Amino acid sequence: MHPLDRIRQSRELLILSALGLLLLGYILIHISHILSPFVVAAIFAYVLHPVVGWLERRTGLPRALVIAVLYVFLIGFLVIVGFLVIPALIDQVQALVNLLPAVIESAEQQLQQRPQIRIGDIVVDTEALLKRLDVAAQALAERFSREAVPLLLTTVEVLIKTFVFLVASFYFLLQGGSLVARIRLLAPRRYQRAIGRILSQVNLTFGAYVRAQFILFLIMASATYVALTVLQVKYALALGIATGLLELIPFIGPWTAGTIAVIVALAQGSAPFGWSPLQLALVVALVYFTLRMLEDHFVIPQLVGHFVRLHPVVVIFGVLAGASIAGILGLLLAVPILAALKIVLMSVVEELRHPLPREVILIRGQDALDNLAERIADPSRRDIVVLIESGAVTWDDLPRIQAIHQIAGEHDVQLQVVTPDPVAASIVTAVGLPLVTKAPVEWRQEATLVPDVRSAPPPAERVAQPRAGVEIDGGVQPVGSAVQVEREVRHGGDRD
């Protein structure tokens, strides 16, 4: 295939891939409201997949039974934790919500004492801020009053989604590996290994990110709860869980959690150790800042490592785009989806820039023809150049060469033939294989099977030195040296 044809096909493939991704994105946007239980189920399966695999290996029980037993234990654990934690959590959340009017009133009192606030050369009119606070307070009151009306419908919807989540997560855990294998088998054989490699990298990255976020939630929620309890900050349980959940939102979440905790410390009215509320708020801010630094420098590198490497601007854009497209779910999944897209894009670019080298096989007898048929069936093979020596094949080998041509077509392998023998050239032409040389070529060493360039022996041991040349790109070039084979035959010197 001419290099220009290769570039043209690659460009067409990229255009079709881009159109396919746009169509897929359009469909997902319009059905995002029903995808949430399936996405959450997939995340849950990612978290539990290593646990299920470990239990399956240790116990020897069927995978379905292991998953069922694990579900029973998890549901029992959640029920116990729910009875112990949820009542206190609900009380603290309600108290925290009830605290909002007091916070707004305290802010209004502070603003009323100062008609203007000067920040450098900027003067802020506090009267306008007071009006905005009144509007915000009324909006919050109306919002909470409206939330109680559709409570029954919301409960029914949650029950349905919970059932879908349980069923979907069970099957994801049961057949997750086979689903990936089926996706790989949908591709043509010549691309299956590359697609399998991409899927493996995406799976590794996505799994590492999801498990890291789950561990981060546990670490930050526990550490924050303990710290706020020691500092006697009210609603420590609710603030700790909120901090863990907000950790799932890159950049914005941690600072939002810290801001909420500082506001609560300022508004609670009392402080321990003889501190003022302002001093308590400063200590709370210092605690959040310290936890954030420890997380960034020690926890995240150990949990995620080199799996997710994205520029901060790209992450911010992805988070905002995900929130706009799919709400909270898009906000949480923006980073792993961006990481997966990066892996796919980098793999495609690498494939276009550095395609796998062609394999060169020297034919000197019927055994080599049989070996050629076996090598074609290898799904990792894409392009094979066949060097047929004079007298290596006869007209009796026509059915064999036809079968080889058919196998190559079935496996999407491109075969090209270099031969000085007129009989071999006639057979190859009759079968329909591309012939890329006309000049006579002789080899002085025994038949040699040349593997891929990347794992081949030194050039002097790979291919015998020729006594003639091959017509490539309009001129006779020396054939047989590893350098020439790699430059002309493996990397673009092919012809249709």
From TrEMBL:
Main location class: membrane
Subcellular location: Cell membrane
Any one GO CC term of the record: plasma membrane
Coiled coil: none
Keyword hit for Manganese: no
UniProt topology in membrane: Multi-pass membrane protein
Biological processes per GO annotation: transmembrane transport
Keywords, alphabetical: Cell membrane, Membrane, Transmembrane, Transmembrane helix, Transport
Top-level taxonomic group: Bacteria
Residue stretches spanning the membrane: 12-29, 35-55, 67-90, 158-181, 202-228, 248-267, 274-294, 314-345
Region (Disordered): 453-477
Entry keyword Transport: yes
Pfam families per the UniProt record, alphabetical: AI-2E_transport
Assigned protein family: Belongs to the autoinducer-2 exporter (AI-2E) (TC 2.A.86) family.
Name the record gives this protein: AI-2E family transporter
Source organism of this protein record: Thermorudis peleae
Organism lineage: Bacteria, Pseudomonadati, Thermomicrobiota, Thermomicrobia, Thermomicrobia incertae sedis
